[in-house]
Amino acid sequence: xxxxxxxxxxxxxxxxxxxxxxxxxxxxxxxxxxxxxxxxxxxxxxxxxxxxxxxxxxxxxxxxxxxxxxxxxxxxxxxxxxxxxxxxxxxxxxxxxxxxxxxxxxxxxxxxxxxxxxxxxxxxxxxxxxxxxxxxxxxxxxxxxxxxxxxxxxxxxxxxxxxxxxxxxxxxxxxxxxxxxxxxxxxxxxxxxxxxxxxxxxxxxxxxxxxxxxxxxxxxxxxxxxxxxxxxxxxxxxxxxxxxxxxxxxxxxxxxxxxxxxxxxxxxxxxxxxxxxxxxxxxxxxxxxxxxxxxxxxxxxxxxxxxxxxxxxxxxxxxxxxxxxxxxxxxxxxxxxxxxxxxxxxxxxxxxxxxxxxxxxxxxxxxxxxxxxxxxxxxxxxxxxxxxxxxxxxxxxxxxxxxxxxxxxxx
Length: 411
What we know:
Number of helices: 12
Number of domains: 2
Radius of gyration: 22 Å
Strand content: 15-25%
Structural class: alpha/beta
CATH class of the largest domain: Alpha Beta
Helix content: 25-40%
Order of helices and strands: HEEEHEEHEEHEEEHEHHEHEEHEHEHEH
Low-confidence stretches: 5-29, 41-56
C-alpha cells in the first residue's frame, strides 16, 4: 500500500475530518472548497431567469438591435460581445397562420439584423409559438438557426428551399414535460439520512486528499497535476454559446459543457461546435430539474433522455453528469452510476449568476483557483463572459492548465 493510499485509509477511519484542502500552487490564500451539506426538503433556492439572472444584484439590460423597418413578429434582438466579436439573438413570435413560413421569416430577421449592425459576427434566431412563449426555459422554439455573417447567403438559399443548411433546427413536435429548476449551482446539497450524509462527506474528504474519481463521484483532481478543469453549466445558450466558444478558441483552452438536454436539442449545432473544437459535452439532465424530489424511474428518464440527445448529436457516449442546483441523493448517485455516469461537482463557484460585478467575480475566481480544482461557470452569465479572457490569462500565469473534466480525471 502506497503512502497516499495509507493516508486515505486513515482518513476514512477518522470521518470527523470534513475536508482536506489542496495545497495552493502559488503563495495565494485559497478558500476551502464547498462542503457537502444536508438538503432542506422542499426548500426553494434563489432563482434565475435565463439569460439575465438577477439575484443579489440586478444584471444590466442587454443592448438591443432595432430593425428598420420593424418586423412585427420580432419580440427583441439582443446582442453582446466577448471583447473580440459581437453576436445577437433574435426572438421571433408567430401565430398559427405564420407557421408555414418560419424559414422565410427567420431569413428576413437574420438579414435585417446583420444589416442594422455591421459589427455583428453572427445572429442566432429562435422562432416561438406566440401563444405558448415562456422565455428561454419555457416551451421549446418551433425553429432555430445560427447565422454567421459569412453564411447568410447559404441560410437565405436554405430558407427558399434551394440548398441545405446544417446550422438550423426544426422542432419535431416535442414539448417539455417538467418545469426547470430555476436555481444556480451554489452548494452541494445531499438529501438523505445522517449516515448517508456522513458517507458523502467522507468521500469528499478522500477526493480532496487524493484527487480523482471515487465511488462514481468526482469532487477534485490531483493537486500535483498542475491542471484544473473549466466547466460551464446550462449550455448551450443561443446568444452566449458562440461568444464563449470564440473566447476559448482564442485562448487555446478546452472546457466541459454540462448541457441541459432540451437546450442541446433546440440548438444542436452549438453542441457540434463544442465537440469539433475539442471540448467535452456532459449531462445536466434533460429539463434542469430538482432530482431528489423525483422517483428513481424519473431520475433515470431525465439522465437517459439527456444522454440520448447528446449522443445523437455528437455520436459519442456521455461520461460525466452534474445535478442541477448541486442537489442530489443516494438514489441520484445509484441511477447515475448505473448509466455509467460520473457525478461531478466543483471546487470553485464564483456565483456568476449573482451578478456581483466584474472585479468581484474575477477576485472570487482567483481566490478559489487551485491545481486539481474544478471551476464552475455558466455559459449564459454575461459577467462571466466579460471576465473570462482575463481569467484564462491569469490561470496561465499561475502555471495552471485549464482542461476538460475528462482530462483532469485521468490518472
